[in-house]
Amino acid sequence: MKKAILSCAVLLILTMVTNAQNTLPVIKSNAKSVSIRDGHILKHNSWGLDPSAKPDTYHVEIPRANNKVTFVTDQDSISFDTQYGKVYNFVILLNGKDSCYTRISANYSGINMPIQLKTSAAADTIPFIMRNSRPYVVGKVNGKDNIYMMLDLGAGITCVNINSVRKTGMQFDGKISVMNTNGTKDEPSSSKTVLQIGNLRWENVNVVQVRNLDDEDDMIIGNSLFRDQILEINYDKKILIVHQKPIDVPAGYTGHLVQYDQHRPKIKIDLHIADKVFSDWFLFDTGRDGTMLIGEDFTGEFDVWPLFNTIFKFGTKKIVVIPKVKIGSLSFANIVTNANDPAHPTGKQSLMGNELLQQFNVILDNKTGMMYLKANSLQGAAYEQWDNMKYKFYGAIAGITIILTAIVWAVFRFIKRLKNNRGSKV
């Protein structure tokens, strides 16, 4: 009898300890949107609560960096000091009744790690060419040679030109919704693509078909392929260097914190508008053949819409002149660009294009969430600015005015001649 009682007591204690270990921390919320602070990044009301997800997983921005991640509700908060490879579970109790099981994962999501064909190399050097201020590498796709790939750090996924599907041996097995200059469409996708650049090979890469590329552009590759590497873009030497291990940053580079959006890097830049300085996160878009674009994320955050020096307006956009933009150690004057009306959101994000970005050599350290910039031999290269454009602009307006005047005059003469002819027949 004593042995039975003792066994029951031990079992009860073990059960209590196990339950205590399995008890998840709980925070409360009366709002469906939650803010997240991930290291230096604050995502205001960015996380929607979903009781049906068990769990709903948030992936840490920079998994290899030991950061503090904090979920903040309208009533409560909870923080975890994250370490690479670990997960952290808790519950957000919505309106006192719905349990929203939530997980913080310090792991990468949706990326492919490259296989090094030369395993002894600490880094891989890949030459590139320039087309319209954008870098291109030549590689293999599904064993097919001479595939031209644009390095577009502003792309959230790897893309294939609809005209290059046969050339790349692409075999589609699904569909992905794509939003670009052609609108939003469901496009064919492949989950089994094999891609090789230099001595690096990626397997089972997700690739989606797109319709808005130039004929000579076979594919677009972005930062999702390099998310756990250090990517160096040297425009002076026209080489990419993919580092597998930490490096010492050479002298002359300025450091910038990185924020990621679907693996796409953003850095903070300064815009001088109407004698005021506005700092905000802009996409580092090496695939943009232009200076920049100002989306409603910027115009909505800051009350700048009426402050712009506007050349003209069409629809919900303005063509504006930005007196000064500062990126790293360089300043750019009188940039002509598009700005989107915050009252009519279209989902356009603010970005910097490669007409400006190519003037820097770049080290993107995805392992630590830092970007390093150094002005290169292309600094001072021409870009779309008002001082150079206004003469073309006014010339074009003058030309259009002359043509329209000539047309109106010709129509007037024709009508007058027609009336005279009718009068002569009476």
UniProtKB/TrEMBL annotation:
Its EC number is 3.4.23.-. GO terms for molecular function: hydrolase activity. It holds the Pfam family gag-asp_proteas. The keyword Signal applies. Keywords: Hydrolase, Membrane, Signal, Transmembrane, Transmembrane helix. Residues 1-20 form the signal peptide. Gene3D superfamilies: Acid Proteases. It comes from the Bacteria. The chain crosses the membrane at residues 393-415. InterPro entries: Peptidase_aspartic_dom_sf. This is Retropepsin-like aspartic protease. It comes from Emticicia soli.
